[in-house]
């Protein structure tokens, strides 16, 4: 009897516990499915739906016939004012929006974790780094982002090409202006961890600071960083679409969801669906990411877990 | 408390100076400056004169110090002069917009009322919606109302304002025709009809901003009330036979509003930032629209000044939040 009960109750690692708790959060699970669907739509979709999103009929007569079509089998979401297929543009737009969100989050988390760990671990530079964080928090970020985009866009695009240049500029600009919360959270965690016995033990056998940080501190700040990272993706996607919406994001032949929405507004009265589709895509992505972040926060908190 | 306030005020000054330097240098040293936009057909000596007329031939440092002096000394003097009819400024040079050749502060003075009316009303309504939702969600935790409130809040800060704004325009302005799509800044409220027109044109932008603000504040209210509902004093109040309404609305609410008030104060400057987008959607001729317009024509003095005003707002409201916290919560006394 006892043997069978032990066997059915398989041992779970710490990540198994997290997953078990995460699965209890219904909203987060629904969001995970939603985000998965959106990711498949954007990443695998273009392999199935093989229309070039930037394809414009070279024949003028044909091009005029192709313009502003409603939904049909050939173009399920219709075509835009230049006769480009909206479904293909939505897929490519999603790729870029998701890529911007992820890479910008990675930049922000990298800067935030570095600053946070350094400030928490080395008392000498703590004051300086936290002053820097406070300074960044007091900057008016949206106006500064707009100014940065406007002033540097052409130069960077001239050096790296319009696609890569704009992408890198947007990602760096968003990353550089959104690392502060991660830094604060990480610093707080590190300050508490530094006084724990295992760090003391590591130090007393002569482990150098670099290795203590990598082997002992970083794995333990992973969970707050994960939550901050998830929420960071959502914020980055919103920021990118705001920039595109204000006309200071990606160039027009480079569709992102924000850009598509911005392009659709000019003809919102006649073709409202051109605003609705990208808007729904952005909202659903951000909503799912936020819900997943919420679920992760609950799942990674050992005080809530197991309740 | 007084010494804390003074100390905080004094630390705000170097922060502001540093921020002003960052903004000034970022805008000024950027490659795409208006000096490079003068057509090549313009003869060099004329080009030199044009640059000199804009004051752009001076070294960066001189221009920065001049701008600081104008921002913190000359412009307030003009402000005093305008208020009391004095002549302190004596014609000192003001910060001039390169685009319109008018003083930047005059432009800001013309644009600010529009922004303040819309943003202020929206924030007030947002708070008024958020508080009851937050309180009731916490009181009935995990009820359907709470779940709906959570979803509402999540959707509120996930759906971008430029999408909600356009959907509202589509439904209420284009299809139903109830409200105008464009905000008319020339409208003056003189009688009942113009007041109604004002309400109609404010309805959509205020709704968009209010929903967005309510989402965040209702979350804070909920968690703060939840925390207080578990406290001992609540049990004591209930044990001595106090009615539920009185317990929640008097004892719990008072204590839980302390962090909420500071969040409301901290959130105000970000609302100005968010209003940039809303002003763009509804074509409101406010300060955000002025900033975007100035950015597109490389009007550096306007961009620097408006951005710095946003920074001043943020630092000021941080200060207000800190001081409010100390005044409201006797457990937190900084001295």
Automatic annotation (TrEMBL), chain A:
What stretch or stretches form a coiled coil here?
none
| Annotated ABC transmembrane type-1 domain residues | 94-293
Instruction: Tell me the InterPro entries matching this sequence.
Output: BP-dependent_transpt_permease (IPR050366), MetI-like (IPR000515), MetI-like_sf (IPR035906), OppC_N (IPR025966)
**Keywords (A to Z) from UniProt:** Cell membrane, Membrane, Transmembrane, Transmembrane helix, Transport
What is the membrane topology here? Answer: Multi-pass membrane protein
Q: Where in the cell is it found?
A: Cell membrane
Q: Does the keyword Transport apply?
A: yes
What PROSITE patterns would the database entry show? ABC_TM1
Parts of the chain that traverse the membrane? 29-49, 96-122, 134-152, 164-186, 217-238, 275-293
Q: Which PANTHER family match?
A: ABC TRANSPORTER, OLIGOPEPTIDE TRANSPORT SYSTEM PERMEASE PROTEIN APPC
Q: Which family does it belong to?
A: Belongs to the binding-protein-dependent transport system permease family.
Instruction: State the protein's name.
Output: ABC transporter permease
Protein source organism: Paragemmobacter amnigenus
Tell me the classification of the organism that encodes this protein.
Answer: Bacteria, Pseudomonadati, Pseudomonadota, Alphaproteobacteria, Rhodobacterales
TrEMBL record, chain B:
Domain of life of the native organism: Bacteria
The protein's location, in the record's own words, is: Cell membrane
Start and end residues of each ABC transmembrane type-1 domain? 112-321
CDD domains annotated for this entry? Answer: TM_PBP2
Which membrane topology describes this protein? Multi-pass membrane protein
Name the SUPFAM superfamilies on file: MetI-like (SSF161098)
Q: What is its main location?
A: membrane
Which keywords label this protein? Cell membrane, Membrane, Transmembrane, Transmembrane helix, Transport
Q: Which Pfam families match?
A: BPD_transp_1, BPD_transp_1_N
* Regions that span the bilayer: 120-139, 151-178, 198-215, 256-277, 308-328
Q: Indicate the family of this protein.
A: Belongs to the binding-protein-dependent transport system permease family.
- Record's protein name: ABC transporter permease
Species this chain originates from: Paragemmobacter amnigenus
């Amino acid at each position: 009897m006892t043997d069978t009960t032990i066997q059915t109750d398989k041992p779970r690692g710490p990540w198994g516990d997290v997953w078990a708790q995460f699965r209890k959060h219904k909203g987060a699970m629904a969001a995970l499915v939603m985000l998965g669907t959106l990711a498949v739509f954007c990443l695998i979709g273009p392999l199935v739906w093989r229309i070039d999103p930037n394809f414009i009929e070279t024949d003028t007569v044909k091009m005029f016939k192709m313009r502003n079509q409603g939904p049909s089998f050939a173009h399920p979401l219709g075509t835009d004012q230049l006769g480009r297929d909206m479904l293909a543009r939505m897929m490519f737009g999603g790729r870029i929006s998701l890529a911007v969100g992820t890479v910008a989050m990675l930049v922000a988390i990298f800067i935030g974790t570095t600053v946070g760990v350094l400030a928490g671990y080395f008392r000498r530079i703590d004051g300086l780094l936290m002053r820097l964080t406070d300074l960044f928090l007091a900057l008016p970020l949206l106006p500064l982002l707009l100014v940065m985009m406007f002033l540097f866009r052409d130069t960077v695009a001239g050096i790296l090409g319009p696609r890569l240049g704009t992408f890198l500029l947007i990602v760096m600009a968003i990353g550089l202006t959104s690392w502060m919360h991660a830094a604060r959270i990480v610093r707080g965690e590190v300050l508490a961890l530094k006084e724990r016995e295992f760090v003391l033990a590591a130090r007393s056998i002569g482990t150098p600071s670099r290795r203590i940080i990598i082997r002992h501190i970083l794995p333990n700040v992973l969970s707050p960083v994960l939550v901050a990272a998830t929420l960071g993706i959502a914020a980055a996607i919103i920021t990118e679409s705001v920039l595109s919406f204000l006309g200071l994001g990606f160039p027009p032949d480079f569709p992102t969801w924000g850009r598509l929405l911005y392009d659709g507004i000019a003809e919102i009265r006649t073709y409202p669906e051109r605003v609705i589709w990208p808007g729904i895509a952005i909202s659903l992505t951000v909503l799912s990411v936020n819900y997943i972040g919420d679920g992760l926060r609950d799942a990674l908190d050992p005080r809530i877990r197991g309740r | 408390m007084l010494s804390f306030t003074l100390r905080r005020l004094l630390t705000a000054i170097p922060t502001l100076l540093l921020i002003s330097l960052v903004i000034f240098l970022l805008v000024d040293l950027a490659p795409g400056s208006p000096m490079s936009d003068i057509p090549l057909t313009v003869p060099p000596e004329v080009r030199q004169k044009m640059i000199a007329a804009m004051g752009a031939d001076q070294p960066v440092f001189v221009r920065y110090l001049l701008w600081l002096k104008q921002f913190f000394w000359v412009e307030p003097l003009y402000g005093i002069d305008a208020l009391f009819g004095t002549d302190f400024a004596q014609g000192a040079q003001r910060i001039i917009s390169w685009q319109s050749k008018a003083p930047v502060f005059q432009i800001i003075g013309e644009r600010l009322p529009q922004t303040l009316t819309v943003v202020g009303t929206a924030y007030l309504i947002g708070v008024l919606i958020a508080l009851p939702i937050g309180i009731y969600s916490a009181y009935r935790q995990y009820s359907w109302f709470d779940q709906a409130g959570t979803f509402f809040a999540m959707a509120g800060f996930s759906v971008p304002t430029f999408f909600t704004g356009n959907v509202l325009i589509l439904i209420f302005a284009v299809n139903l025709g109830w409200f105008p799509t464009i905000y008319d800044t020339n409208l003056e409220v003189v009688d009942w009809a113009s007041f109604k027109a004002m309400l109609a044109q404010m309805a959509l932008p205020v709704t968009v901003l209010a929903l967005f603000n309510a989402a965040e504040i209702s979350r804070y209210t909920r968690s703060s009330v939840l925390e207080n509902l578990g406290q001992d004093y609540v049990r004591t109040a209930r044990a001595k036979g106090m009615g539920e309404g009185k317990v929640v609305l008097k004892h719990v609410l008072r204590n839980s509003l302390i962090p909420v008030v500071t969040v409301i104060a901290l959130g105000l400057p970000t609302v100005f930032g968010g209003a940039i987008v809303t002003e763009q959607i509804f074509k409101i001729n406010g300060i955000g629209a002025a900033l975007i317009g100035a950015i597109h024509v490389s009007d550096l003095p306007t961009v620097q000044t408006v951005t710095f005003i946003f920074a001043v707002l943020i630092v000021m409201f941080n200060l207000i939040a800190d001081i409010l916290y100390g005044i409201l919560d006797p457990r937190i006394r900084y001295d």
